[in-house]
Design goal:
Layout: H1 3-29, E1 39-44, E2 47-48, E3 51-52, E4 56-62, H2 66-96, H3 107-124, H4 129-150, H5 153-190, H6 196-210, E5 215-219, E6 225-229, E7 234-236, E8 244-246, E9 251-253, H7 268-276, H8 280-284, H9 292-315, E10 320-323, E11 330-333, H10 335-339, H11 349-358, H12 363-366, H13 382-422, H14 426-461
Antiparallel strand pairs: 1-4, 2-3, 5-6, 6-7, 8-9, 10-11
Helix pairs in contact: 1-14, 2-7, 2-13, 3-4, 3-11, 4-9, 5-6, 5-7, 9-11, 9-13
Length: about 450
C-alpha cells in the first residue's frame, strides 16, 4: 500500500470515528430523555484491488422494538380510559358523600333519619306547633339536599365537555405534527440523511394520541407513518385529519362531517363519550361506565319520586310535591305547610314514619323502565333505596380505581421493557466512547508516522 493510500485510509478512519463519537455523545446527552431512542452507527468495509479499505458509515439507525411500542400504546389507551372513568365515578360519589369510609351516615342518609325522627317526635306530642315546624324544616332540608345534587348535572357535563374539547385539540395538533414530520422524514431519507431523531419526535406525537384513543401505525418504505385508531379510523398520514365534538348529539366528527364516534373505541375520549351517553342502549347497558351521568340522575329521580309517593300515600295527601324534569326532577314540601306548619295533620305522623321504614319498593319502582338507572335492588324501603344508591356509586368508584391502578402498573411495566430495549445505557455508551477515543489516538499516531515518512522521502529527494 502506498503512503498516499495509507494516509487516505487513516483520514477516512478518523472521519468514521468522528461520526461514531458524535452519535455516542448524543446518546449520552439524551440518556434521560424519555422520547429518545438509542442510535447506532452501521459500518461497511469497501475493498479496492481485493484489499479491504477503511470502514465507512453506512447508516445511523435507531433502536426499535415495534411489538413493545404497540403494547405500550395499547396500555396507554386502557389507562386513559380507566383513569377518566375513575375520576368521573369519584366525582359522583363525592357529590353523594358515598366516598366517605368513616362508617357514618352520608348527608343524605342523615337528613332522611332527621326527617324520620322529627315525625316520631311529633307523633308523641301532636299538639306541639314547634315540632310541626321542625317536621316541615326537616322535610325541606331533605328535599333541598336531593335538589342540590340534581342541580350538579350542568357542572358535571361541562367538565366532561371540556375534557373532550381539550383532548380533541391535542389530537388535532399531534396529527398535524405527525404529517409535518412525515414530510421531513421522507425528504431526509431520500437525500440519504439519518432520520432517527425525526422518527423519535414522531413517536412522541403518537404517544400523545395513544392515551386519548387506541392507535395502530403503518410505516411505508418511503418513511410515511399512517396512524389509525384501533378500529380503523385514520388520524394522520401524509395529511392530518381534523376532529370536532357535538355536545348535542354526543358525537365526534371528522373534517368531512362524518360521524366517527364508533372509531374511538378506547381511550379517554371514549370514556367521556360513554359517561355522557343518554341513549336507550347506554342506559340498558350493565356497564356502569356507560350512560353513567344519566343513570346517576335517574337514581336521584327515583329516590325523590319514591319519597314523595310513600310519604304522600301514608299522609293521605301531598306533603311532598315531586316534579319531573328533563334535567332532573325536583322535590319540595307543599307550599301550604311551608307557609303555615300548624296546618300539618299530626295524627298520621306515626303512619308516615312507619311507611318510610316498612313500605317495600318493587324493582320497577326502584329502577323504572322509562328511566333506567342501573340499580338492581327490590323489596327495599326508602332508607334501603338511599343506601343502595350510595353502595352502587361507592362500588363503582372502588372498582374503577382498582382497574385504573392495575392498568397504570401494566403500562409502567411495558414502558420500562420498551425503554430497556431502546433506551440508552450510559455505562455501555461510555465504554464505547473510550474505545473510540483509543482508536482515534491510534489512527492519529499512524498519520503522524506517515507524515514523518513523507518528510523523510522529501528530504531524500532534495
Amino acid at each position: 500500500m502506498s503512503l498516499t493510500a495509507a494516509l487516505n485510509t487513516a483520514v477516512t478512519g478518523l472521519a468514521t470515528i468522528q461520526t461514531q463519537t458524535s452519535v455516542v455523545s448524543a446518546n449520552i446527552a439524551n440518556a434521560q430523555n424519555a422520547n429518545y431512542t438509542r442510535k447506532t452507527v452501521q459500518l461497511t468495509t469497501p475493498t479496492a484491488g481485493g484489499e479491504p479499505q477503511a470502514a465507512l458509515v453506512a447508516a445511523v439507525t435507531r433502536a426499535t422494538a415495534p411489538e413493545f411500542l404497540q403494547d405500550y400504546y395499547d396500555t396507554m389507551a386502557d389507562y386513559g380510559q380507566l383513569s377518566v372513568s375513575a375520576d368521573r365515578a369519584r366525582a359522583l360519589a363525592e357529590a353523594l358523600g358515598a366516598d366517605d369510609t368513616s362508617g357514618g351516615q352520608t348527608t343524605l342518609e342523615s337528613m332522611l333519619t332527621n326527617f324520620e325522627e322529627a315525625l316520631k317526635s311529633l307523633e308523641a306530642t301532636p299538639e306541639d306547633t314547634a315540632l310541626k315546624a321542625l317536621v316541615v324544616q326537616r322535610g325541606e332540608e331533605l328535599a333541598g339536599e336531593i335538589n342540590r345534587m340534581a342541580g350538579l348535572r350542568s357542572s358535571l357535563q361541562t367538565q366532561a365537555y371540556d375534557d373532550i374539547g381539550t383532548g380533541l385539540e391535542t389530537l388535532n395538533e399531534a396529527s398535524k405534527n405527525i404529517a409535518k414530520l412525515n414530510a421531513q422524514i421522507v425528504s431526509q431519507k431520500a437525500a440519504g440523511y439519518p432520520t432517527g431523531d425525526l422518527e423519535d419526535l414522531r413517536d412522541a406525537e403518537v404517544t400523545k394520541i395513544s392515551g386519548l384513543v387506541g392507535v395502530r401505525t403503518v410505516t411505508s418504505e418511503t418513511g410515511v407513518m399512517t396512524v389509525y385508531t384501533d378500529s380503523g379510523t385514520q388520524l394522520a398520514g401524509s395529511r392530518a385529519q381534523t376532529f370536532s365534538y357535538d355536545a348535542t348529539s354526543n358525537t365526534i366528527s371528522n373534517g368531512n362531517g362524518d360521524n366517527v364516534t364508533a372509531g374511538f373505541r378506547t381511550g379517554s375520549l371514549r370514556a367521556n363519550v360513554n359517561y355522557l351517553d343518554t341513549s336507550a342502549a347506554a342506559l340498558a347497558n350493565s356497564d356502569g361506565n356507560v350512560g353513567t351521568l344519566e343513570k346517576f340522575f335517574n337514581q336521584l329521580d327515583s329516590l325523590a319520586q319514591n319519597i314523595a309517593d310513600v310519604v304522600n300515600t301514608a299522609y293521605g295527601s301531598n306533603f311532598f310535591n315531586y316534579t319531573a324534569g328533563d334535567a332532573a326532577g325536583t322535590l319540595e314540601v307543599d307550599a301550604s305547610f311551608v307557609a303555615d306548619p300548624t296546618t300539618l295533620d299530626a295524627t298520621v305522623m306515626g303512619d308516615v314514619q312507619q311507611a318510610m321504614r316498612n313500605t317495600t319498593l318493587t324493582a320497577a319502582q326502584v329502577n323504572p323502565a322509562g328511566d333506567p338507572n342501573g340499580l338492581s335492588v327490590s323489596n327495599i324501603t326508602i332508607f334501603g333505596l338511599a343506601s343502595g344508591i350510595m353502595a352502587y356509586n361507592a362500588r363503582q368508584t372502588s372498582e374503577n380505581e382498582t382497574n385504573r391502578d392495575t392498568a397504570e402498573s401494566l403500562m409502567s411495566t411495558v414502558e420500562q421493557k420498551f425503554r430497556n430495549l431502546t433506551g440508552v445505557n450510559v455505562d455501555d455508551e461510555l465504554a464505547q466512547l473510550t474505545m473510540l477515543q483509543n482508536n482515534y489516538a491510534a489512527l492519529a499516531q499512524i498519520m503522524n508516522a506517515i507524515n514523518e515518512m513523507f518528510d523523510q522521502v522529501i528530504a531524500i529527494g532534495s
